[in-house]
């Protein structure tokens, strides 16, 4: 397969750095451009405050930072742009790229809920990638825009998918304990977080509740029919560097025989990205821990190279309104919840193209 020429937009921020790290050595994607704003013209190694595990890849260190100019990127042969741009500028730049025939796999919030924009969490709703065809028909774009969800939503919906398929869902209540890296490289002062917990993250609860319904919905006549499910989210920020933990209660339509039955359902869950051996897909999307004090961010966030969600504290609770399943889940917010999910979304798109499914 010919290597695809790629740009990382907003490459100096945390998610941009994670894109650089995850795309290093990718079997069919080659990063040829890294973009920024104040650092344009500098070598990436001089411009970036590198905060990832390990060193900056040498090819990235020696790449000169470009402007996020759609005309320039298209003219220089970029075929796909992985976007870590701020929400304030993402939509305009991404649309201009798509108009010029550049595909966009974006972590940025704008357009996630547009009806013809796939909001993809690879294993959960890969078939929604078919929405991309509508963009060319209705908007006249030559490229496509693919979105990955909010970080907490990506972690939650990967866990909910097999539960929904096996037992049905009547209601979901989730409390998130979100890492500070979710706020960006300079998002929260130390005085906010040391010896503290912040019980609110602006806009986060709406995203968890509404993006989840779209992701878990079904394609119906060229649009997504959102899942009719009551989801109540409480989002908090905790003094953890990486790894979002979520305490999840789900009211089930059918009661399992026991928690080991549920654990087996979760452990056996696989989807098209695993069947097709896509490079960024983990072998096991869901990993169950049976120790009573797991999952823990420091110990579990890099499971499946950060693309797996780790599940623990499984228990069944019978109540007057039906059976509830309790769990604590954990995922890496800048990998499964951001850059890794966007890369996997693009791999799904390419696989659908290559298999003639679009």
CATH topology-level fold name of the largest domain: Dihydrodipicolinate Reductase, domain 2
Radius of gyration: 20 Å
The count of helical stretches stands at 14
Oligomer: single chain
CATH H level, superfamily name of the largest domain: Dihydrodipicolinate Reductase, domain 2
Percentage of residues in DSSP E strands: 15-25%
> What sequence of helices (H) and strands (E) makes up the elements?
EHEHHEHEHEHHEHEHHEEEEHHEHEEH
Number of domains: 2
- Lateral arrangement of strands in the main beta sheet: 3-2-1-4-5-6
The first-level CATH class of the largest domain is given as: Alpha Beta
Second-tier CATH architecture of the largest domain = 2-Layer Sandwich
Detail the poorly predicted runs: none
Structural class: alpha/beta
Form type: globular
Percentage of residues assigned to helices: 25-40%
Largest sheet: 6 strands, parallel
> Total number of β-strand segments?
14
Beginning-to-end CA distance, first to last residue: 19 Å
What's the pLDDT, averaged over the residues?
96
Characterise the protein shown here:
This protein is an alpha/beta fold and 358 residues long. It has two domains: 4-150 and 339-354, NAD(P)-binding Rossmann-like Domain (Rossmann fold, 3-Layer(aba) Sandwich); 151-331, Dihydrodipicolinate Reductase, domain 2, CATH 3.30.360. The protein is built from 14 helices and 14 strands. The strands form three sheets. The protein has a six-stranded parallel beta sheet, sandwiched between helices. Strand 4, helix 5 and strand 5 (103-106) form a beta-alpha-beta unit. The longest helix has 20 residues, at 335-354. It is globular and about 60 Å long. The chain starts with a strand and ends with a helix. The mean pLDDT is 96.
């Amino acid at each position: 397969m010919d290597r695809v020429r790629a740009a990382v937009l907003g490459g100096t921020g945390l998610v941009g750095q994670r894109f650089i790290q995850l795309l290093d050595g990718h079997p069919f994607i080659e990063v040829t451009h890294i973009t920024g704003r104040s650092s344009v013209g500098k070598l990436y190694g001089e411009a970036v405050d590198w905060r990832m595990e390990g060193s900056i890849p040498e090819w990235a260190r020696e790449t000169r930072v470009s402007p996020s100019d759609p005309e320039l990127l298209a003219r220089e042969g970029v075929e796909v742009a992985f976007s870590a741009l701020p929400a304030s500028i993402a939509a305009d730049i991404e649309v201009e790229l798509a108009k010029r025939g550049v595909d966009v796999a974006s972590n940025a919030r704008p357009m996630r809920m547009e009806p013809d924009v796939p909001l993809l969490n690879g294993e959960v709703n890969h078939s929604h990638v078919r929405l991309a065809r509508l963009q060319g028909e209705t908007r006249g774009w030559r490229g496509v825009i693919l979105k990955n969800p909010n970080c907490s939503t990506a972690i939650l919906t990967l866990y909910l998918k097999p539960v929904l398929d096996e037992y049905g869902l009547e209601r979901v209540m989730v409390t998130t304990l979100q890492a500070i890296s979710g706020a960006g490289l300079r998002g929260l002062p130390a005085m906010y977080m040391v010896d503290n917990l912040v019980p609110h993250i602006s806009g986060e609860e709406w995203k968890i509740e509404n993006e989840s319904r779209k992701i878990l919905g079904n394609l119906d006549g060229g649009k997504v029919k959102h899942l009719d499910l009551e989801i109540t989210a409480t989002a908090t920020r905790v003094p953890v560097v990486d790894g979002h933990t979520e305490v999840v209660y789900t009211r089930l339509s059918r009661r399992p025989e026991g928690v080991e039955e549920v654990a087996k359902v979760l452990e056996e869950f696989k989807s098209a990205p695993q069947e097709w051996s896509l490079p960024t897909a983990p072998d096991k999307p869901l990993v169950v821990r049976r120790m009573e004090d797991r999952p823990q961010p420091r110990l579990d966030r890099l499971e499946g190279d950060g693309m797996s969600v780790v599940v623990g504290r499984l228990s069944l609770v019978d109540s007057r309104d039906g059976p509830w399943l309790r769990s604590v889940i954990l995922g890496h917010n800048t990998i499964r919840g951001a850059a890794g999910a966007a890369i996997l979304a693009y791999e799904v798109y390419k696989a659908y193209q290559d298999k003639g499914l679009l």
